[in-house]
Amino acid sequence: MPSTRNGLPATRLYPFLVGKLGRMMIPVLLGVVCGCTPQATTPPPAAASEDPLAIEDRPPNAEGQPMLDDIARVARDADRIVVVEHSYRYDTNEGINSGTPPPERRYREVVLAGNDKQPLLATLEGIDPYVSQWVAACIFEPHHRFEFYKGNKRTHTLEVCFQCNQLEWDGAKNPVPQAFYAGL
Asked: What is the value of pTM for the model shown?
């Protein structure tokens, strides 16, 4: 039976490695030998619909397109669009517990008419209509409003809450495309 040293067979290579190169060279040589083997390639990324760990497993959809088309049509037909930054009833304690909300304060107002409407229309037409099934976990507190006018009559209203990414179009909640808020 061949002799052993520290449980390893005695060979000519072992004393050379331990004695001449020192114990620190063994991990280095192992790294070189193991590092020279072919490595596995990274698999291509899976689409969200193929990825079992994807947060949302629904395929892309265009559920927001009807709302985008409706807003774009109303914006084209409007004589002017008034964009308003305003207060909301929950901004003060009086609005929370009172039966009558405090009067609205308008902080800023911008009127879009004629060619000034073109950037808004281009944005609406370029928004991806994909709608996610996630819902906001906060209270709808709109502080921005788009008022659409034909002559002196307000025809439509779009209330926007950038805090929770929700909106109301003429008082109704609609499926809102994810890209809508970034577009505005």
From this structure: 0.62
Q: CA-to-CA distance for 65 and 177, rounded, in angstroms?
A: 8
Beta strands in 56-165 (DSSP E): 80-86, 106-113, 144-150, 153-161
Could you read off the pLDDT of 130-178 as tens digits, one per residue?
A: 877 667 778 888 999 999 999 999 999 999 988 888 888 886 666 777 7
Distance between first and last Cα of the chain: 83
Hey, what amino acid is at 138? C
Query: In whole angstroms, how far apart are CA 79 and each of 56, 91, 117, 150, 151?
Result: 40, 32, 10, 5, 6
Q: How far apart are CA 20 and CA 40, in angstroms?
A: 35
CB count within 10 Å of CB 177 equals 22
- Lookup result for tokens 């209203």: 157
**Residue 100's pLDDT band (cuts 50, 70, 90):** confident
